[in-house]
What does this fold into?
Amino acid sequence: MLKYGSISRRFVASRPHTTLLKRSYNEKSPKILLEKPSKPFMPTYDAKAVEEGWYDWWNQQGLFRASSSDFSNKPSKSPFTMITPPPNVTGSLHIGHALTFSIEDAMVRWRRMNGYDVKWIPGTDHAGIGTQSVVEKMLMKERGLTRHDLGRTAFVKEIWNWRQKFGNRILHQMRKMGASLDWDNEFFTMDEKRTKAVENAFMRLFEDGLIYRDTRLVNWCCALETVISDIEVDYKDIQGKTWVQLPGRSQPVEFGVLHNFSYQVVDPEKNGIKELTVSTTRIETMLGDCAVAIHPDDERYKSLHGKYVYHPILKKEIPVVCDKDLVEMEFGTGVVKITPAHDPNDYACARRHNLPIESIFDKTGKLNENCGIPEWAGRDRFEVREGVIQKLEELGSYKGRNDKHVMRIALCSRSGDIIEPLIQPQWYLNCQDLAKISKKQVEDGKMKILPEQYTQDWYRWLDNIQDWCISRQLWWGHEIPAYQIKLDTQYDQNLWVTGADKKNAESNAKKLLAEKGYAKHINFELVKDEDVLDTWFSSGLLPLSASGWDGLQINKIPSRYPIQIMETGFDILFFWVARMAMLSNHFTGNQAPFETIYLHAMVRDAQGRKMSKSLGNVIDPLHVIEGVSLDQMKQDLLKSNLPEREIKLSAENLEKEYPNGIPSCGTDSLRFALIQYTQQSRQINLDISNVVQTSYFCNKLWNLFKFGLNKLEQDPIQADFDLRQDSQLTLVNKFILSRMADTVSKCQSAFESHRLFEATDALRRFVVEDVCDVYVEFSKAVLSKQEHYDKNSTLKVLYACMDVSLRLAHPLMPFVTEELWQQMKTRLPVLQQKQAPSIMVEEYPTLDQFNHFYDKGVEDHFKAVLSIIHASRSLRQVNQISVVKELPFVIWCNESKSLGGPLESYLSEIKSFVKASDIQLRDKQPEDMSKWTVKVIDENLKIFVPTTHIIRAQLENAATKGIDINEAIQNKSKQMNKKLNKVMNDLEKLRTRMNRPGYYDSVPDVVKEKNGQRIIMLSLEKETIENDLKVLKSMSDS
It folds into this structure.
């Protein structure tokens, strides 16, 4: 049997695999049985041709639900379950999604190859506000219609059509990324199962007293007429007076201006303060002012404690309140206007002082009857701004403006409108106890957060958690299963019940009314809440609902609960992950929903800018995979919902970023490059050129197999071989097996510790630097000969390098590894007896199979040999001597005990590699250095060649080109004198620098050591050149 280590790789008859033999297809599964892709081995790597066909074949064969244990006699390991963070059906996937799927697919493929029972559940999110917003923009752009023109039912139907179109595109993109998902369990957050789970969860939380209704200040988007979450708020910094274009307005709105106006003090003292001046950037909100605040310790205003001021426009008295939390004495005048219905800080102040809280804006941002000026009611809030200023000026209360005020404005990320703090009744979830449980689970180690730096963020957020506003005033989303009980006007009108339908709600209403002491047959009407639930509520149930949980208390928790790893971007740790933890804990009796929470960085462009359509730097993964021209990217912009002015700006940015478009890189290159970037834990600055560079790695791997398959077909190896038993392995074979063992160790460790970028680095170094650049070059001499004592061992080791490289790389680069593995299986007898139909269900190399090959001593010895070979080639190159010209070499080694012995053992191999006519190993340097040309490897290892042989070879080379010998000597002397002058100048500069006063006290030790080494090397080089010049002179004289 083929054995690499203490555990043999056994190729036994496969156990019957029900997943493969009895696979049931859903409506999205392919109906036509697909042949396994069969392609000729192409002379060069072509990503498109390589990747074609494999995904559909994997899926149809049921391999996404199989594991390596199905094709060996090893027992299956424990279940491993993950869910995809469901992409929003607002459009296409972007490069951030590609990062997510690259990381997660690598994780599940690695576990599949390690024998785990893998279930990776895919899904998409209905994304309430996001999807409604893009569909509204689409309707307006294409048909000139608003949602109100269509009505709710017709509008929701339009969104379902949109979801069908873009949901399918998203699923196509997932497949193109190679995501090995369990498609038979695909979910949509508004499908029937998930809808039932959401309804039941809401009703249970309501019954448990955790969901309640309250009227509070919320983030309100007047353009969309809904409350929005904090994650949907963008901030824009304003540097002084700036005109900002807002949606639905023909004229821009002014920001960055601080207006000052005054309130007259009621009954002022004779020599006291007559007026209080306040400042505001939103002067129109002064119509809702109910008080002014001062600091209780401010000596300037001690006389105003308990006093009142006149509202200049509304002609009413409002109190002066003392509030140390709101007012900073040193800021401005130390007086603050209080508008509690339109500012969160003012709202908190009003609650502390029992001040009246009345909104002066309606849901669309127009003034209502509370504004106190009847003729302004119904007018837009920004349009009345000038009217307010004019009235204040007429009254003598306006005190001027500051046009250089620096401020930050909050914008709705969906509509672009200004966020208005607004008082609205909403549904809330009490999070206080839920947060404590989720925090303690991390403290107790029941859930682990990686990277660990985010653990403190988790604690900080949960310690300061506010109750969650879970309702939205949208048409698209999960309708809230709540009904208001309408009674006669003299009764309490804030009575609410829940119900799966109206009949169920009526029954619950009767029970509630009876509990409240109402008459048994009192008449009432039920009015269903028209609001929908926050998108995060439905996605917060996914650890349960993705596995089919319906929310009913009588049903069991799914068997695949908890999820082993929850992988997502760190930006939604609180908005999604924490809420999943809180909700799941409540419904499972505090069973943590995740074993590990793994967070990746945010993807930005090469300049570190946030990716935005208006900047033209949003990258579609398919564009990187398939390639795209600049013209096509511009055409795609025209099909978007961006405003015309932003399309123009975006096109200009595209021209700067991608003047030649994006070249086709393939899925494997994109995945590998993205995973390499994960060493950056906060921000990934993605440069497409790095993805292009990774495609060269794929090409390197391809060329390795082009070479290896040819050699292994010419001289097939036996399937039953054990490299451990080969006592005649050469140094280079031992070296590459040691490097292989080290690489296996690093890759396994990288996956176990969730540091996947370490696996990409170890794999690239092994394939490129160790196998291709070293081992293949060394093996060519052996494999090119018909008979060679080491040929069979070299073929076996070459095969091992190819086989192990593929299995290590498969989780990271599934397509090219599958193609090459299938080529090996088809063409090499050693692989044809394998039962595994795909590399996907091969065993991942483990350290216990390879650890006995690791030998640091062997690696050190071989590196010394390699350094001698490189030095010999460098010596030839510098002196322009062909690599085929044999020269006599002397190797001087000052470490005879640790290195001299091994070098002597491999002297014959070194002689062959350096093309030596004669080679000697000495522990003493030549006495007359003037007769030798030396190449210094380090202070303990040098190689010498008689200078006469060097110059003779050079002159022979010149003669073959028809050059006069004396002329050649003169040219050579000029070159060497020029080089000598440079070395002497460098040496002099370095000595001068090192002799400066204070050098040894001020320069770091590492720099001093580096400079000392350079002095030695330059001195040796100077001596060598001087000796060579003496030889040239002697030859010239003769």
